[in-house]
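FORM 12-B: Structure-to-Sequence Request
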């Protein structure tokens, strides 16, 4: 809402919400390691750094 006029500045269309949306998603790579022999080659900090650098390059 615009504080001065009370007008709505953004509208949300509830049709675009997923009906079974969850608040928190957590993954466990143990099954991928057990069944497929897969292991991550990049840690979380490095992945975040790569993602931020990619976004900055786009700017």
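FORM 12-B RESPONSE
SEQUENCE OUT:
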């Amino acid at each position: 809402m615009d504080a001065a006029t009370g007008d709505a500045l953004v509208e949300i269309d509830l049709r675009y919400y997923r009906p079974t949306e969850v608040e928190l998603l957590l993954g466990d790579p143990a099954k991928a390691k057990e069944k497929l022999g897969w292991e991550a080659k990049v840690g979380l900090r490095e992945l975040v750094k790569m993602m931020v650098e990619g976004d900055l390059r786009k700017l």
